[in-house]
């Protein structure tokens, strides 16, 4: 029995260290409520040097600044982990970012990280392209939804959440004690 427990722990640890979609721990869709293109724990690549997220200048619209940060925990069509690190946005809508992917056997892709420049348009959508690939991302209710279209992989969808942000705990009801109240200030 103890051997089974050790094997189980090793299996979980192996799932945390690799980027291959077969190694990602399974999380039921109902747990996230974000659908099959969102996968907590989806791993892409490690950055060897930290990339700081710039504080936006006052002239940067709030809608543009909302894109800043690291987005992840999503996978294209449920099979290819992806992160975006949007480290700078400008008043003209230009966005500077790192585009990161895990290796994928299904799409015959190695792990990758690329510096990209995108454009946030007035409709609140981040667009960028590379080669024949076109991508767009929107933020809805704090969740980033993406669409990738190209000739090699077709149409892929993803749902990402911010990485590194600790969610607030749910408020718990508090029982208030009732009894006599004294006004010590009046004395």
Walkthrough of the structure:
Helix content is 13%, strand content 34%. It is built from 3 helices and 8 strands. It has one domain: Beta Barrel (Lipocalin), CATH 2.40.128. It is mainly beta and 187 residues long. An 8-stranded antiparallel β-barrel has the order 1-2-3-4-5-6-7-8. The protein has helices spanning 2-17, 29-32, 62-65, and strands at 69-75, 81-89, 94-101, 112-120, 125-130, 133-140, 143-150, 154-162.
Blueprint of the fold:
Blueprint: H1 2-17, H2 29-32, H3 62-65, E1 69-75, E2 81-89, E3 94-101, E4 112-120, E5 125-130, E6 133-140, E7 143-150, E8 154-162
Distance between the termini: 69 Å
Number of domains: 1
Strand order of the largest sheet: 1-2-3-4-5-6-7-8
Total count of strands: 8
Uncertain ranges: 1-30, 165-170
Give the DSSP E fraction (strand runs of 2 or more residues): 25-35%
Q: What's the alpha carbon Rg, rounded to whole Å?
A: 22 Å
What is the string of helix and strand elements?
A: HHHEEEEEEEE
CATH superfamily membership: Quinohemoprotein amine dehydrogenase alpha subunit, domain 2
Percent of residues in helices comes to: 10-25%
């Amino acid at each position: 029995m103890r051997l089974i427990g050790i094997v189980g722990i090793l299996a979980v640890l192996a799932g945390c260290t690799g980027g291959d979609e077969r190694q990602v721990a399974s999380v039921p869709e109902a747990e996230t409520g974000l659908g099959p293109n969102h996968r907590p724990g989806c791993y892409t690549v490690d950055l060897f040097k930290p990339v700081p997220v710039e504080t936006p200048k006052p002239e940067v619209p709030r809608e543009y600044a909302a894109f800043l940060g690291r987005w992840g925990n999503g996978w294209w069509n449920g099979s290819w982990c992806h992160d975006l690190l949007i480290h700078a946005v400008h008043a003209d809508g230009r966005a500077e970012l790192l585009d990161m992917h895990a290796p994928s056997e299904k799409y015959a892709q190695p792990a990758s990280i690329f510096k990209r420049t995108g454009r946030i348009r007035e409709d609140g959508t981040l667009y960028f392209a590379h080669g024949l690939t076109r991508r767009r991302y929107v933020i809805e209710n704090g969740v980033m939804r993406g669409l990738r279209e190209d000739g090699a992989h077709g149409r892929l969808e993803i749902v990402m959440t911010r990485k590194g942000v600790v969610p607030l705990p749910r408020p718990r009801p508090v029982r208030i004690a009732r009894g006599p109240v004294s006004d010590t200030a009046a004395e």
